[in-house]
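Good morning,

Attaching, inline, the backbone tokens for the sequence recovery test we're adding to the shared suite. The designed sequence is right after.
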């Protein structure tokens, strides 16, 4: 009899327990293993109990370590308590399943090493993209393939906000407020709109796909706070949709890993991902391109991913293997610095409607060998003196475009700062 301890009994924890109790017979039959939830720990467990004569309850999460359970399901969240819990579990020869993306992205290198040394199973399918089986796909189905790139919409909050700005012509502030009312965004949305959530997720996928240590502390992260309704409209005119993109790809002996808002061509399938849905596009050298799509968050979706790891754990008991444990590779030598990465860029600026302004701008761009693929000017919109100018550049080095922007902003006929957004290459 396998005994399972559950740490954290919030939305996901309760959904997991209800799911596994409802499907106990099916899971047991499919795996050939019988199991039981023996203990549930939550700091406010007294307010969250449900009727069960066979489950012990405790408000001290670390009590689970001292119990006789074989497998700990960590659904606490955060990194401080969860790190101590998971580390202690592994050192006490207890296997772990977690839905904690921050934990894996920030401490995965150590925890994976400890799990190898102690021959302990650690599952984290629910840490990335909810019910989408992306971890299992990379660790099992695509294990022997060379992954060229991973790109995706993996934060539902950002995706919902940008869609409302596009479809309903709402401001960023109004779209965020709406997302908060619906429960898609926290009262403090910084983690989502600032890009940290997506950065944790793409870090985990990079570790698994490329056999590298977590790139989280070295990667470039941008959120969507600077995106305006005007940018949404201009992008649409040019044939693009603005999405918050997570990207990882191999470039020779290094890995590019970034999170940023991007103009995505309406021909690209990622431009069609709406609402709070998630999608990850995987490009391999032999199998071509695959798209995984589904619910990326929510109690039921996350709980479903946790339950899938239960079956993986049972396979581990029978075969002694964990296919989703990243295997470090000597092929890649680190993460490419953002300043050395090439992208096309969308530039939006306000200029005085006077002769010679465009010539000054193009002269500065030419100094950095930056050519313009598309440009549009609109009618004056501020006191009939300033005109918005929008450009799409050719592929340019990040450090060069930033230097050029700084010089253009210093021109006397340019008002305020220039908003720059990267343009996703259709091949990525």
């Amino acid at each position: 009899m396998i005994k399972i301890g559950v740490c954290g009994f919030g939305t996901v924890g309760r959904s997991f327990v209800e799911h596994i109790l409802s499907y106990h017979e099916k899971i047991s039959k499919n795996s050939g293993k019988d199991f039981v939830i023996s203990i549930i720990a939550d700091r406010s467990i007294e307010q969250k109990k449900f009727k069960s004569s066979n489950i012990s309850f405790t408000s001290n999460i670390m009590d689970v370590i001292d119990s006789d359970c074989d497998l700990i399901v960590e659904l606490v969240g955060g990194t401080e308590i969860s790190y101590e819990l998971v580390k202690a579990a592994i050192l006490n020869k207890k296997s772990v399943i977690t839905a904690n993306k921050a934990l894996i992205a920030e401490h995965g290198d150590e925890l994976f090493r400890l799990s190898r040394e102690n021959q302990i199973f650690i599952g984290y399918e629910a840490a990335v993209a909810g019910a989408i089986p992306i971890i299992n796909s990379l660790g099992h189905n695509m294990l022997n393939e060379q992954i060229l790139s991973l790109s995706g919409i993996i934060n539902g909050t950002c995706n919902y906000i940008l869609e409302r700005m596009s479809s309903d012509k709402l401001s960023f502030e109004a779209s965020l407020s709406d997302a908060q009312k619906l429960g898609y965004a926290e009262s403090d949305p910084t983690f989502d709109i600032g890009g940290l959530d997506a950065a944790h997720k793409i870090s985990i996928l990079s570790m698994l796909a490329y056999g590298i240590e977590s790139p989280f502390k070295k990667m470039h992260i941008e959120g969507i706070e600077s995106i305006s309704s005007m940018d949404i409209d201009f992008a649409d005119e040019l044939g693009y949709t603005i999405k918050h993109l997570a990207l990882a790809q191999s470039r020779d002996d290094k890995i590019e890993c970034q999170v940023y808002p991007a103009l995505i061509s309406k021909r690209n399938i990622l431009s069609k991902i709406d609402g709070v849905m998630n999608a990850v596009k995987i490009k391999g050298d032999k199998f071509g391109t695959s798209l995984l799509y589904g619910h990326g968050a929510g109690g039921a979706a996350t709980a479903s991913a946790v339950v899938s790891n239960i079956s993986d754990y049972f396979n581990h008991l029978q075969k002694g293997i964990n296919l989703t444990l990243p295997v470090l590779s000597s092929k890649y030598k680190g993460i490419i610095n953002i300043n050395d990465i090439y992208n096309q860029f969308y530039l939006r600026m306000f200029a005085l409607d006077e002769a010679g302004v465009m010539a000054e701008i193009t002269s500065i761009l030419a100094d950095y060998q930056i050519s313009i693929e598309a440009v549009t000017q609109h009618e004056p919109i501020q006191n009939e003196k300033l005109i918005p100018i929008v450009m799409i550049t050719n592929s340019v080095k990040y450090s060069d475009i930033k230097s050029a922007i700084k010089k253009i902003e210093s021109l006397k006929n340019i008002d305020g700062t220039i908003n720059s957004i990267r343009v996703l290459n259709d091949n990525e």
